[in-house]
């Protein structure tokens, strides 16, 4: 059994676009589908990578995550992040956050509740205001959960007064490791440091 297990989903059993490079950097066996009843999740450290179908089976996913003895990002953070209403708590903690309202389930009909188009990921370095907003969000998580997480992706959009947080991703982020030299090696080293 490898020291590191990468949790994936049935549609992407090998992981996202970072999967192959990360597996090579970790010398890991590859991905395992989180809800595969034949998958074994011990004794390795489990890193959530592309568990993108968890929203369709949230209760089952959280039960599974709770059962994983060595989850890289702690279960309480995963549970908190799995309900997008965390954005209200995050806004109350101080980081500039996109204004959000929540509709009761089933009330939106066939209309879009929110649409997002992501641009190309080509900017080599975030600008100072983007870094400040992202660092505020990470600091709020550190304060809320009392620890630094293995990984956190903070998504931002321009707002009228500067960048605003639209999502903090600690469950299954694509980290776009190919866009920065040796990023997969640095991520692999961070994972190995927690084994």
Structural overview:
- There is one protein chain.
- By secondary structure, the protein is an alpha/beta fold.
- The protein has six helices and five strands, in the order βαββααααββα.
- The chain has helices at residues 19-26, 58-67, 75-81, 86-93, 128-145, 183-193, and strands at 4-8, 31-33, 45-48, 153-159, 162-169.
- The chain has a three-stranded parallel β-sheet with strand order 2-1-3, with helices on one face.
- α1 packs across α6 (183-193).
- It is globular and about 50 Å long.
Question: How do the helices and strands line up, and which of them pair or pack?
Answer:
Layout: E1 4-8, H1 19-26, E2 31-33, E3 45-48, H2 58-67, H3 75-81, H4 86-93, H5 128-145, E4 153-159, E5 162-169, H6 183-193
Parallel strand pairs: 1-2, 1-3
Antiparallel strand pairs: 4-5
Helix pairs in contact: 1-6
**Measured distance between first and last alpha carbons:** 13 Å
On the 0 to 100 scale, the average pLDDT is 85
Strand order in space, largest sheet:
2-1-3
Number of helices: 6
Low-confidence stretches: 108-123
Using the alpha-carbon principal axes, give the shape: globular
- Structure classification: alpha/beta
CA radius of gyration is 17 Å
Strand count, sense and barrel status of the largest sheet are: 3 strands, parallel
- Strand segment count: 5
Question: Helical percent range?
Answer: 25-40%
Helices and strands, in N-to-C order? Answer: EHEEHHHHEEH
Percent strand equals 5-15%
């Amino acid at each position: 059994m490898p020291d590191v297990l990468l949790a994936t989903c049935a549609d992407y059993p090998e992981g996202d676009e970072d999967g192959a490079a990360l597996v090579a950097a970790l010398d890991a066996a590859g991905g395992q589908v989180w809800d595969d009843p034949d998958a074994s999740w011990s004794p390795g450290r489990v890193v959530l990578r592309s568990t993108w179908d968890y929203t369709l089976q949230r209760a089952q996913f959280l039960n599974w995550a709770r059962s994983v003895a060595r989850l890289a990002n702690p279960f309480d953070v995963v549970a908190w992040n799995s309900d997008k209403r965390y954005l209200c708590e995050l806004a109350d903690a101080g980081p500039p956050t996109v204004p959000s309202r929540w509709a009761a389930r089933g009330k939106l009909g066939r209309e879009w509740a929110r649409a997002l188009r992501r641009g190309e990921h080509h900017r080599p370095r975030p600008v100072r205001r983007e870094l400040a907003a992202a660092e505020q969000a990470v600091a709020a998580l550190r304060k809320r959960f009392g620890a630094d997480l293995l990984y956190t992706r903070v998504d931002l959009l321009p707002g009228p007064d500067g960048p605003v947080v639209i999502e903090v991703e600690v469950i299954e982020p694509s980290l776009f490791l190919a866009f920065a030299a040796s990023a997969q090696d640095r991520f692999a080293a961070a994972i190995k440091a927690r084994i």
